[in-house]
Write a structure and sequence with these properties.
heterodimer, A: 336 residues, mainly beta, 1 helix, 28 strands, 52% strand, B: 326 residues, alpha+beta, seven-stranded antiparallel β-sheet, five-stranded antiparallel β-sheet, 8 helices, globular
Chain lengths: 336, 326
């Protein structure tokens, strides 16, 4: 009993004087480093408009509550451009090969709208105003911007009342010109990458034209029939992609032709579609891959090699490396 | 022969019984003050074992022991200070896992390079049932997580049977106020919060202040251990005794530090608040706060629980966690 007591007291003494008071020294060892999968959860507000994704999917942008939001999908960092002073946002578009947005803002003066061209560099969060390039009617609106980073020419299509169009051409020195075409009603436009030539589709008869006013060049691309061809797009090699309308009464295409405007269309390549579809369901990648979206099945088909890709939720856009969609208010990227 | 054995057994049992009684007396009334203080502090900061301390010592004596160590009350002082002192880099995105070993404890630390990935998650059955840290983390598809805040500890008044279903104080997740039992929105209390921009808030804040600072993730807990680069515990050990610990901190470059230290085992007793503070300080923490330790301490990483929760049944069911988005 006494032995037990002595033992107990010794143990308590040791704990009290030596074990507890000594400052804990500890060692640190690195076990693992994990470079996280770079997809951050991005939530897009339900009322967001004009949701777009940059060329490689790095940024997502949308217009919400008078602000244009630009969000880095890899880190979640949010930047925005305010539009509540005198300028409103008319239109914006991401460049096809860099992290930059072209914006067109408008300021209403009396019954006219003054249009201003600006750009926004998303990597550095810098917005710069370029210049005021036109004054148009209050009811006019911007329908498209096309640009080439090789020729540095920008084409801007403005639709006026009754859908008559004006196309403005702006070069690197900020010279502005109105493009003269034989047609007032223009559907799609596209710009060649290596040459300063504009390709457009007239909205009445549906024919494809290539134009350059300075060179006094204006040529119709002649296919087998005299009308019924829609412009889908242009690739990095300046191939023009044209769809053949099924008939005069609906807007669906049944075949796609593509080639260079200098060669005879009989020598162009062609793809027949299994089912007629709208040209808005056809996407041309920079490298010439033709993709078709089948909305009912939520899939994108690569018409060049037949591969299918399923996307989740509401389709947003196709970018270089994949498909962007919104599901449950969250951005989903499905890579090819 | 059998009589002899029974007699011997009776002797031994009696002896052990006396030894235990003497042990209690020696610990609570003897000259071994360090042991007494640690035991009292550990007991008084548990949910349900305060009565043991109160059985042996008067409240006055207990207060005397508890007050010997004070955690200083330092305030973070506003958004301008945060924006000036904390510089969140926009390009880093990874996480790092460290193991830390001391004589009396071992634990793990996770560094999260992008603070905007750190969020608060909660049990899907809030108000009814808590869930384990790993279960909640999997639901949020987290790469890593630690347990978060405290909870009401009794079940029908029965201590130690709390199922972790009801948090205490304020709970905010993804910008939404999920739970709040502090009726006065101007009343300040200890919190751990993360703002939309990724700043870690520690110490006393009111709900009103948190909303103004755009806090989107909030758990009520404390005390803060490091505020604006200053340690809150300079003397003593923090007053909470030795136990498993969970804590979170943020460095000046925005990196978030998650810590979980095991304890309540013979070869791994645990750590004091001061030790947790010092470890976080050594890792560069500029602001840091204590989270719920004890049986709840859990760290989840890449699909598994990577620490050793002391409960026989493993992880404790909790109402809230702090997790890292994939």
């Amino acid at each position: 009993m006494v032995v037990g007591l002595i033992f107990e007291i010794c143990v308590l003494y040791y704990i009290d004087r030596f074990y507890l008071p000594t400052k804990e020294n500890y060692t640190i060892k690195l076990i693992e480093k994990n470079n996280l999968n770079k997809n951050f959860n991005i939530t897009v507000p339900k009322e967001a408009k004009n949701i777009k994704v940059s060329h490689n999917g790095k940024y997502i942008s949308y217009y919400f509550e008078s602000k244009l939001y630009i969000i880095d999908t890899e880190t979640g960092k949010e930047n925005h451009i305010n539009f509540d002073d005198e300028y409103n946002l008319s239109y914006y578009k991401w460049l096809s090969d860099r992290d930059r947005i072209l914006l067109i803002e408008n300021k209403v003066i009396d019954d006219k709208k003054e249009l201003k061209l600006s750009y926004y560099d998303s990597d550095n969060n810098v917005k710069k105003d370029v210049f005021d390039f036109a004054k148009v009617d209050n009811k006019s609106y911007i329908s498209d911007i096309q640009m080439s980073t090789l020729t540095n020419i920008i084409y801007i299509k403005v639709n006026h009342i009754g859908d008559r169009c004006s196309i403005y051409r702006i070069d690197i020195s900020n010279n502005i010109q109105r493009v003269k075409t034989k047609h007032f009603f223009i559907n799609s436009i596209a710009e060649l990458v290596h040459e300063d030539k504009l390709v457009y589709e007239d909205d009445v008869y549906h024919n494809i034209f290539v134009v350059n006013n300075i060179l006094k060049y204006n040529k119709k691309i002649q296919f087998q029939e005299n009308e019924g061809y829609v412009l889908i797009g242009v690739d990095k090699l300046d191939n023009i992609y044209v769809g053949k309308l099924q008939n005069k009464y609906n807007n669906k295409i049944i075949e796609i032709y593509y080639g260079n405007y200098n060669t005879e269309t009989s020598n162009w390549n062609s793809i027949k579609l299994d089912f007629a579809t709208y040209k808005s369901n056809i996407y041309i990648q920079n490298n010439g891959t033709i993709l078709e979206r089948i909305p009912i099945e939520s899939i994108i088909v690569n018409l060049s090699d037949g591969k299918k890709y399923k996307y989740k939720g509401v389709f947003l856009q196709i970018y270089d490396k994949g498909i962007a969609s919104i599901f449950d208010s969250k951005l989903i990227k499905t890579e090819f | 022969m059998i009589c002899e054995v029974i007699k011997l057994l009776k002797c031994i049992i009696l002896e052990v019984f006396f030894m235990i009684i003497i042990l209690f007396f020696l610990v609570f009334y003897g000259p071994f003050h360090n042991i007494r203080d640690v035991v009292i502090k550990s007991l008084m900061t548990t949910m349900n074992h305060k009565w043991i301390a109160e059985l042996f010592l008067s409240n006055k004596k207990i207060d005397q022991i508890m007050n010997k160590q004070i955690v200083k009350d330092i305030s973070q002082s506003g958004k301008c200070r945060l924006e000036r002192d904390i510089n969140i880099s926009n390009n880093e995105n990874g996480i790092e896992l460290y193991e830390i070993k001391g004589n009396r404890f071992k634990g793990k630390i996770i560094l999260v390079y992008n603070p905007r990935r750190v969020k608060v998650g909660y049990t899907s059955k809030i108000g009814k049932e808590g869930q384990t840290t790993s279960e909640i983390a999997k639901r949020y598809n987290a790469i890593a997580a630690i347990n978060g805040g405290g909870f009401k500890g009794s079940n029908d008044g029965i201590a130690w049977a709390g199922t972790g279903e009801t948090p205490r104080g304020i709970l905010m997740s993804d910008g939404k106020l999920i739970y709040n039992d502090i009726k006065d929105k101007y009343k300040k209390s200890d919190v751990m919060a993360l703002t939309k921009e990724g700043y870690l808030l520690v110490g006393k804040y009111s709900l009103n202040q948190l909303v103004k600072l755009k806090a989107s993730e909030v758990i009520s807990f404390g005390p803060p251990l490091i505020v604006n680069g200053r340690k809150t515990i300079e003397n003593g050990d923090g007053g909470w005794g030795i136990a498993p610990r969970t804590a979170i901190g943020q460095r000046k470059d925005g990196v978030i530090i998650l810590l979980a230290i095991d304890g309540r085992r013979v070869n791994c007793l645990g750590a004091t608040l001061k030790e947790v503070q010092d470890i976080l300080f050594d890792f560069g923490a500029y602001n840091a706060v204590n989270l719920d330790g004890g049986f709840s301490t859990t760290m989840y990483y890449n699909g598994k629980v990577i620490n050793n929760p002391p409960d026989i049944l493993g992880e404790r069911c909790v109402p809230t966690i702090v997790y890292v988005e994939k």
